[in-house]
Amino acid sequence: MKILVVDDEKNCADVLYDFLVESPHQIKKTYSGKSALALLSQEKTDLLISDVNMPGMNGFELLKEIRKNNKTMEVILISGKEDIVRSINAIELGIFDFLEKPIDVSKLYQMIQNIENDRMIKNRIKKEKKEKSSVFLLKNFQFNQSDSFNDPKVGKVGVFSKKMVQIFQKLEKLQKFPDIPVLIEGKTGTGKEIIAKYLHYKNYSGKGEFLGVNCSALNENLFEAELFGYEKGAFTGADPKGSPGKIALAANGTLFFDEISELPLNLQVKLLRVIQEKEYFRVGGKHAVPLNARLIFASNRNLSKMCEKGLFRQDLFYRINVCKILIPDLKQRKSEIIPLFLFFLNQINEEVGTKIEGVERQALEFLKEHEWQGNIRELKNIATKAGVFSESKILTLKEIKNFIKPIQMKKKIFIHDFELPESSLDLDLLIKTIIQKTLEKFNGNKMKAAQYLKINRARFYTNKKYKK
């Protein structure tokens, strides 16, 4: 491999160069981001090892410039403690990994070995030209065991795309920093809770619990009592012994706020104070209790856009949006659909004792092109049905279509097959419901909703039926 080392501190660059020059790789060094960019434009480089803090052009700026024209070169960043959060976030910008100062050269060597191994595997796959039969056998499905995780409290997780590998790398880095809040955004069914549990249970020490808070079910009366707990005799009907609350129960563990977007504005203020002060008071209590739990927040809505509309507090958003993990829809991860389906089939065979041996390639291609509105949750549902109810050991295209059809019928309106109810039909209510669903589909964007429904945008404002 061709490796370029860049660090404005000449001694650091020289030490790294001297260490790496003994390896079988071709090593070059330079002392600034701009000179590194110039060298990279002159010849192909496989790996860049760059310091973060450099004058003129820092490591993050260098990375962004590189990614404008080069999406494949691997990058390892050298980071000081003050840049840990930015370095963790940079994983999703396309870095292979990062190292903290002082540099552990054995870790650096292992990273380079991992990059080299990945390159060899990719090259081997490209060279392999095997004849494809009409059926894909499950026994031929192979995946890297290091990219899977199995825990009785989480389930089995498979990682089959570069984007998801980056997300899980980010999670592993975050495990070392429980004080950093994590925000997970993604549509329903993309696996937000699994991501949160992975962060908690991977390399689990057993010191603290993973507790979930359903924000959509909280009201003002329940919020403080459930979250903060209360002292004995704090209010009528309270447990005479008092209650510790979920924050206390999650001590040394994780508190997962599911659907944080649904938390009422007046309760967001109370949560904000806890995050800011890192302490709270039990209901009826006089002494502050320290916050000692990792906080993870999940939302199926875009919180930034909600802030713009005044539906979510900006100050709270800034506090929780320190490390954000955005999980793409399955339609944006088409390369994962087939391996995930095969992964789920293998899982069903192991857990239930089914004996699916393979899938028609036509069926797999059909799955890849299908619009998975329910994302991974829907895909796993189909794999489970196929595994349990298939009458043959080889899943056919016809069977797959039959398993998908009932779900598809629930999610789409087929105009020609539309049946009127036996009783009267409230047309105004039907129109209003369609409008509301369309606005939700496009996150309140009336122009896109109007285009989707093929109506003039002005009708949203002139006709009450079209108002949310």
Which keywords apply here?
Rossmann fold; 468 residues; five-stranded parallel sheet; alpha/beta; 4 domains; globular; Helicase, Ruva Protein, domain 3
Q: Which architecture of the largest domain per CATH?
A: 3-Layer(aba) Sandwich
Number of helices: 19
The number of E-state strands comes to 17
Mean pLDDT over the full residue set:
83
Q: Which sequence of strands runs across the widest sheet?
A: 2-1-3-4-5
Q: Estimate the strand proportion.
A: 5-15%
Q: Main beta sheet: strand number and arrangement? A: 5 strands, parallel
CATH class of the largest domain: Alpha Beta
| Integer-rounded radius of gyration | 26 Å
State the helicity in percent bands.
40-55%
Secondary structure class reads alpha/beta
End-to-end Cα distance, whole Å, is 58 Å
Which homologous superfamily in CATH is the superfamily of the largest domain? Answer: P-loop containing nucleotide triphosphate hydrolases
Description:
This protein is of the alpha/beta class. It folds into 4 domains: 2-120, Response regulator (Rossmann fold); 163-326, P-loop containing nucleotide triphosphate hydrolases (Rossmann fold), CATH 3.40.50.300; 330-411, Orthogonal Bundle (Helicase, Ruva Protein, domain 3), CATH 1.10.8; 427-466. The protein contains 19 helices and 17 strands. The strands form 5 sheets. It has a 5-stranded parallel sheet, sandwiched between helices. Strands 10-11-14-9-15 form a 5-stranded parallel sheet. Strand 7 (148-151) and strand 8 form a beta hairpin. Helix 13 (334-352) crosses helix 14 (361-369) and helix 17 (427-441) crosses helix 18 (446-453). The longest helix has 23 residues, at 105-127.
